[in-house]
Amino acid sequence: MQDTMKIFDNVKPRSFPRNTCQWHIQDPASQLLTWNKPPKSVLVIKKVRDASLLQPFKELCVFLTEQKNMIVYVEKKVLEDPAIVNDENFGPVKKKFCTFREDFDDISNQIDFIICLGGDGTLLYASSLFQDSVPPVMAFHLGSLGFLTPFSFDNFQTQVTQVIEGNAALVLRSRLKVKVHKEHKEKKTIVQNGVEENGLMVNQQEKEHGKLTKYQVLNEVVVDRGPSSYLSNVDVFLDGHLITTVQGDGVIVSTPTGSTAYAAAAGASMIHPNVPAIMITPICPHSLSFRPIVVPAGVELKIMLSPDARNTAWVSFDGRKRQEVCHGDSISITTSCYPVPSICFRDPVNDWFDSLAECLHWNVRKKQNHFTGDEEEEY
């Protein structure tokens, strides 16, 4: 991807030095994708065991391999679907695929661009496969919502060809770089001569240590109270300063892309993905004054359980990797230097408003009848 992709908006995913970030506010129409040389490899993401996607998946793969002579990467578990295994006609095409396994194989430097078949969750999953630079993503609407998937599959051959030939519009969807530092105690038993004395442990030591996990998040980080009946009680710090304590069902930290997801359901404003920002939205706060806020991209947020919290909390990342947050654990969140270049159907502005209208019915209402004459309207 590094040698074949160029994004003409002065923001290149691979051009940032380590630990630095640059943002440029420009006309969205200037974000264009061209290829220095024709792309050769494509990653096809399909929802596993979804029968409705089998035929589009097969048609797309045949088109890419036989007509476009591209190297197609497919997740191994997708090809283990019995409907694909038992399809003898698809066998010759399947043998040409390169396969990989999530969390085992690194394909980040082997993919020129990505094609997603499904709903918004498919794009979120594609984003999670790349912890650094993300190839351009072309998403077809074959799922239940389709806010992030602007392309229709009806004329996919023409649309894919246009992308391969270049000059496609892009929207750079910012991601969140998340670090979860967990403090916990691990009990270790030391046994003499391989046995326990009198059926009891000879020596028991408690070793306190920390575990650091990193994530790249496209939509949101959600901290909630989990199965507990108590309100969650978490402290939120911004650049080292305590800004609020959230008492309620939890808190959502989202990107502009995530502002139309869970955050919108929790009462937040919707922000165009070209706006460099991070949103903090409470979930059912036990306060009349706590409202969603928007902070600049690049600030560092830190979330911890309050010292007097009655229970633990739970955290998830784009709805995945859910885990418990205990006292002493911390979650650090800032803007990632590796956005997701999402290929537009038309352009970033029109695509976004079309999605608002079609998926969320934004600004859809019954219109008033116009006057038929000079008379006043009767009530």
Automatic annotation (TrEMBL):
EC code: 2.7.1.23
Cofactors that this protein relies on: a divalent metal cation
Catalyzed reaction equations: NAD(+) + ATP = ADP + NADP(+) + H(+)
GO molecular function: ATP binding; metal ion binding; NAD+ kinase activity
Name the UniProt record assigns to this protein: NAD kinase
SUPFAM superfamilies in alphabetical order: NAD kinase/diacylglycerol kinase-like
Source species: Eleutherodactylus coqui
Native organism taxonomy: Eukaryota, Metazoa, Chordata, Craniata, Vertebrata
Family under the similarity heading: Belongs to the NAD kinase family.
Biological process terms in GO annotation: NAD+ metabolic process; NADP+ biosynthetic process
Gene3D superfamilies tied to this protein: Probable inorganic polyphosphate/atp-NAD kinase, domain 1, Probable inorganic polyphosphate/atp-NAD kinase, domain 2
GO cellular component, one term: cytosol
This protein's record includes keyword Magnesium: no
UniProt-listed InterPro entries: ATP-NAD_kinase_N (IPR017438), ATP-NAD_kinase_PpnK-typ_C (IPR017437), NAD/diacylglycerol_kinase_sf (IPR016064), NADK (IPR002504)
Keywords: ATP-binding, Kinase, Metal-binding, NAD, NADP, Nucleotide-binding, Phosphoprotein, Transferase
Keyword set includes Kinase: yes
